[in-house]
């Protein structure tokens, strides 16, 4: 899938975000500590046009995370896998449990974290992370506790870069992340692909029932859930020779959204 450059512009977004009440990173870390490790995740694909219609409808029930006076955060990830790309293929074959391994740079605040995401069953995710520092023994202990295979069997496979808006529900233990301006690249930057889609993800403590925001997406905007792994999608686009039959429906959906067909009613649920 070849995306058109400069397809999406987000100049309008800054003005819309000014209407939200804001909260600090310290507040979010305290309120949502439980969600930082164990949560149910529901993802949605949408266009920038859909996002522009949805944002104003979230202003009453959500506050926005503001870091260093910015409501749009900058993220850079590096994903690791072994030579056989087992992390990718485990997702493709729907194998459980499965893992994703990455470093994440929070460019607005500076810290670099090593993160391991563990998915034991559909929708439910555990995430473990440690801030990288000079204490190599501490890092090695963390890895041995949470990763089933030695880290030296893995190497950097690809990078992802994106912007993120984090919305915090004012009442319940829930947050929404909105990722956009995605850029996928190989570690040597030999190949890079811009992706114009917006990924909305609702993260909550329980997977029972539909949230009001999920109902809003479905009923008013015709946007239905579909799992979207940035790592797997990036693999499909950067390494097109990989087996990707199971991901073809989501790739077709992404292309439809990119071409202006904003509805995702018929999109598959990929877990």
Low-pLDDT residue spans: 1-8
Q: How helical, in percent, are the residues? A: 25-40%
CATH topology: Hypothetical Protein Pfu-838710-001
Number of strands: 11
Strand line-up in the sheet with most strands: 2-7-6-5-4-8-9-11
Overall structural domain count: 1
Radius of gyration: 18 Å
Amino- and carboxy-terminal Cα gap: 22 Å
Helical segment tally?
A: 8
Global mean pLDDT:
87
Shape: globular
Reported CATH architecture = Beta Barrel
CATH class: Mainly Beta
Strand content: 25-35%
Please state the oligomeric state of the protein chains shown. single chain
CATH superfamily label: Hypothetical Protein Pfu-838710-001
Query: From the helix content, strand content and strand pairing, which structural class follows?
Result: alpha+beta
Explain this structure to me?
With 271 residues, this protein is an alpha+beta fold. It has one domain (11-258): Hypothetical Protein Pfu-838710-001 (Beta Barrel), CATH 2.40.320. It has helices spanning 11-17, 25-31, 48-54, 86-92, 136-146, 212-221, 230-238, 248-258; strands spanning 21-23, 38-46, 62-65, 73-81, 98-106, 112-121, 124-131, 155-169, 174-185, 192-195, 198-204. It has an 8-stranded antiparallel beta barrel with strand order 2-7-6-5-4-8-9-11, surrounded by 4 helices. The two termini are 22 Å apart. The relative contact order is 0.20.
What labels would you give this structure?
single chain; Hypothetical Protein Pfu-838710-001; eight-stranded antiparallel barrel; alpha+beta; disordered N terminus; 25% helix; 8 helices; 33% strand
